[in-house]
Design a protein that fits this description.
By secondary structure, the protein is of the alpha/beta class. 27% of the residues lie in helices and 17% in strands. This is Fucosyltransferase.
Length: 379
């Protein structure tokens, strides 16, 4: 990644005394607050496929002769966005052994690692864990927002030992979604499935779902240009209401030929569920985000249409109209690839916890420090 010190043998972790402006509490105060809260609440695409293979269940890996590493305890310091989620059984869900996941702050002194979600620390809704940090304990920085929406990184230099994000160069890499060749896809794997290829023509043309409308966003400017040439059905807070249910977007998209998968900002590897919802539903994604080359690290070149493929928005609109009027061409150019892949979408945040726990277990006996968090994340 280019921002870390070399691996060393286990030793004391970075201390809070070097972190100006980062708030910490004593363990006693943290535990008292916790009790009060509890009472109150009651290389391209192939390289990416190889990387994603690391996150398939452990049973797919060959048996090792040496004894397995000892079990580890992973402490969830704050639940992301303040929303409690049931803690996972990593063995039952993902065939990941030797992991105990807990959100009990009393476990802090014994925890092998602490996973810390950035939003709560940056907003002041939570504090960093107390000092002194137990020797050999790893702190994991977890963040799934874009750099544009990630504040206060400068306060966290030298604090963390590992990163867990959607970026391929994270210490612990887990994207919003990824494809697996069908020949290698495991039956019954969590949150995965073969991609369908319906022969029935779709009657609706282009859809867009947006919940955070801002006139300053590039995606809003693009939409305003596109609607001058074709009709776009808009859903969400800025448009038509969606039907209830967690899969409401996917169900809606099954009726459309194309979906505008427009990210709120453009950064390396920031490719979210907007793209993967379209892929799952069988609508061709029209993407605005990082470069085409970056997208091609995650899926085949023909699986999407990049807005930068065309010199003008008008020419893009003409291309979409031509595909609408020629379903055979649409299938041949942008849908036939689906026969060869299955899609995996990790479950937030269960799979992230288990994947982090496995990484800590494998890295036992080694430690490092993230020394340039802001520069790396913005690169």
């Amino acid at each position: 990644m280019g921002v870390r010190a070399a691996w060393t043998h286990e030793g004391p972790s970075p201390r809070a005394s070097r972190r100006t402006g980062v708030r910490t509490l004593s363990l006693e105060v943290v535990l008292k607050r916790h009790r009060l809260c509890v009472c109150a609440a009651a290389a391209g695409f192939l390289l990416l496929l190889a990387a994603c293979a690391l996150y398939l269940p452990d049973q797919a890996a060959p048996q090792q002769q040496q004894p397995p590493p000892p079990d580890v305890t992973l402490l969830i310091w704050t639940h992301p966005f303040g929303e409690y989620r049931e803690l996972p059984d990593c063995l039952q869900l993902y065939q990941i052994r030797g992991c105990k996941i807990t959100d009990d702050p009393w476990a802090y002194p014994q925890a092998d690692a602490v996973i810390i979600h950035h939003r709560e620390i940056a907003s002041g809704d939570a504090y960093l864990p107390p000092e002194p940090r137990p020797d050999a304990q790893k702190w994991i920085w977890m963040n799934y927002e874009s750099p544009t929406h990630t504040a206060e990184l400068w306060l966290l230099e030298g604090v963390f030992n590992l990163t867990l994000t959607y970026r391929t160069d994270s210490d612990i890499f887990l994207p919003y979604g990824y494809l697996v060749p069908r020949a290698r896809a495991a039956d019954g794997a969590p949150d995965g499935g073969q991609l369908s290829l319906s022969r029935r023509p779709r009657k609706r043309f282009v859809a867009w779902v947006i919940s955070n409308w801002s006139a300053n966003h590039a995606r809003v400017g693009f939409y305003r240009q596109l609607r001058e040439f074709i009709r776009v059905d808009v859903y969400g807070r800025a448009g038509r209401p969606l039907q209830g249910g967690g899969d409401s977007v996917v169900r809606m998209l099954r009726r459309y030929m194309f979906y505008l998968a427009l990210e709120n900002s453009q950064h390396t590897d920031y490719i979210t569920e907007k793209l993967w919802n379209a892929v799952l539903a069988g609508a061709v994604p029209v993407v605005l985000g990082p470069s085409r080359q970056n997208y091609e690290r995650f899926l085949p070149a023909e699986a999407f249409i990049h807005v930068e493929d065309f010199p003008t928005v008008k020419q893009l609109a003409r291309y979409l109209l031509a595909l609408r009027d020629d379903p055979a061409r649409l299938r041949r150019r942008h849908l036939d690839w689906r026969r060869s892949y299955s899609l995996r979408q990790p479950r937030f945040w269960m799979e992230h916890y288990c994947t982090a726990c496995r990484a800590v277990r494998r890295a036992r006996g080694r430690t490092q420090t993230v020394t340039d968090l802001r520069r790396w994340f913005h690169s």
